[in-house]
Automatic annotation (TrEMBL):
InterPro entries for this protein: MCM_N, MINDY, MINDY_domain
GO biological process, one term: protein K48-linked deubiquitination
Cellular component terms per the entry's GO annotation: cell periphery; cytosol
Name of the protein in question: MINDY deubiquitinase domain-containing protein
PANTHER family in the record: NF-E2 INDUCIBLE PROTEIN, UBIQUITIN CARBOXYL-TERMINAL HYDROLASE
Region named Disordered: 283-345
Domain MINDY deubiquitinase: 7-265
Record field: compositional bias (Basic and acidic residues): 283-294
Domain named MCM N-terminal: residues: 357-427
Bias (Basic residues) ranges: 295-307
GO molecular function: cysteine-type carboxypeptidase activity; cysteine-type deubiquitinase activity; K48-linked deubiquitinase activity
């Protein structure tokens, strides 16, 4: 029940001459529910009774249960229309509606969308995809492989990203020769989820003036084609804090962000690229504040240890055991059923999870070699910044760590990314390469794939 009361910031905007609201993504994590609901909020047939609440200083927000209600109302209304048209029977609606409603409730926590590498509007028939279709929302992607590309011709037989994940998982378990080369090919395909070939087809396939969704890098965003140009709705709060008059981002290149635009699709005062230094500086400050907070906590723990450690050198071992027992007792209340070792994340478990994940990065082996060290060096050599880690690898290394990451993924994702960034930076420094750690953090992307669905 508490989760249904979760609040999301809302923003009043103008769209095609009409006053509307959109929902912003939460700072602590990204939710597909937000993007799906935004398509409906911008649509022509807006449900009645939507409540946007206001705080004392004028900031608006909407509760999660209200967003789910909007989606449910639009779903039922469209299913009833399909019954009237004879496309569906009442029996079919009664059969599928309970399943659709289960997906609506889980949509803020799970994301099961798998593009097929055949057409820009082709996806596996997962529960999420079937819900979008039932509501009448089209979804597109740009993850197409050019048949003329010899580097990926070997993988043409892989039909979708779901098959790609299965192929990668089976490959990791096999003992076949050429395993490393095959894995590098699959990794390359995964790292290029928005190709130039796919973008060209996307520009042609998306219809003019229709609100839809775009799958890109394991997320979805509202997509809209205006005067022949593709645009993505801006829902990230950190971007809007720097550019309050931005509403759309032009989608015109595969490998870099387009300009930010106003509600009328005109340019804002400063383009994204001209103000990129300010964004990097803001990110630098955020990382510095986080690091300062870590150091303060470390100093506090050090002072507590010094206060307790008043015994002689010979007795220090017993004193340390006492301190460990005290820490164990103090953090026991933070733990939940997710993992006896790591628990549901609280202040103490945050550090334990980071330490466990860093240990995994350092110690995980493939063919007797440090896998992630090799990956970092390869990424640095090729200039790539996206690493994919299979959940099964973590589970093989430390089952409790894997379960804890899965149970707390939306909260822990940024910490895990920061942890990998620290590891990346340390490896590069060992090779006598000077790299700006904060700038590195703004570029690095970490994905843990094959996470089990949460109920």
């Amino acid at each position: 029940m508490a989760d249904s009361k979760k609040k999301y910031r809302a923003r009043e905007i103008e769209f095609l001459g009409q006053q509307r609201h959109i929902v912003l993504q939460d700072v602590g994590g990204w939710s597909p529910l937000v993007e799906v609901v935004n398509v409906l909020l911008l649509g022509d047939e807006l449900p009645e009774g939507i409540i946007f609440q206001s705080k004392a200083h004028g900031e608006k927000y909407i509760e999660k249960y209200m967003m789910e209600s909007v989606l449910d109302t639009c779903l039922v209304r469209r299913l009833q229309t399909l019954v009237k048209l004879g496309t569906l029977t009442r029996a079919q609606v009664d059969q599928h509606l309970p399943e659709y409603r289960k997906v609506i409730v889980s949509l803020s926590k799970t994301f099961t969308i798998y593009p097929k590498f055949t057409r820009t509007n082709d996806f596996e028939d997962t529960s999420d995809k079937l819900l979008y279709s039932a509501v009448g929302i089209a979804i597109y992607h740009g993850w197409l492989m050019n048949p003329q590309d010899t580097d990926t011709s070997e993988a043409v037989g892989i039909e979708s990203s779901a098959k790609l994940i299965i192929e990668a998982d089976e490959l990791m378990k096999s003992e076949s020769k050429g395993k490393t080369d095959r894995w590098s090919l699959l990794q390359s395909i995964w790292n290029n989820q928005f190709t130039s070939y796919g973008f060209a087809h996307l520009c042609n396939d998306v219809p003019e003036g229709v609100l839809c969704l775009l799958y890109r890098d394991e997320r979805i965003n509202v997509l809209y084609k205006h005067k022949g140009m593709l645009h993505v709705l801006v829902t990230a709060q950190d971007v809007l804090e720097n550019y309050p008059d931005a509403l759309w981002r032009k989608l015109e290149k595969v490998d870099e962000d387009g300009d930010l635009l106003t509600s009328s699709f005109g340019p804002i005062n400063v383009t994204w690229r001209e103000n990129e230094r300010n964004l990097i500086e803001d990110e630098r400050k955020a990382v510095k504040q986080k690091e300062t907070h870590r150091l303060k906590n470390a100093k506090k723990r050090g002072r507590r240890k010094d206060k307790k450690n008043t015994v002689t050198q010979d007795e220090s071992g017993e004193a340390n055991k006492d301190l460990g027992a005290e820490a164990e007792a103090n953090t026991a209340g933070d733990r939940g059923p997710a993992s006896p070792k790591y628990g549901v994340l609280g202040p103490s478990q945050d550090n334990m999870l980071r330490d466990g994940f860093m240990k995994f990065l350092k110690e995980y082996l493939l063919d007797g070699k440090s896998y992630f060290r090799d990956q970092v060096e390869l990424m640095h050599l090729k200039g790539t910044s996206h690493l994919i880690i299979c959940y099964g690898w973590i589970k093989t290394y430390d089952k409790e760590l894997a379960v804890s990451i899965c149970s707390n993924y939306f909260r822990a994702a940024e910490d895990l990314k920061l942890c990998f960034c620290d590891y990346f930076h340390s490896i590069i420094q060992e090779n006598s390469v000077d790299t700006d750690k904060v700038e590195l953090y703004t570029k690095i992307k970490l994905t843990i794939c094959c996470l089990p669905l949460r109920t």
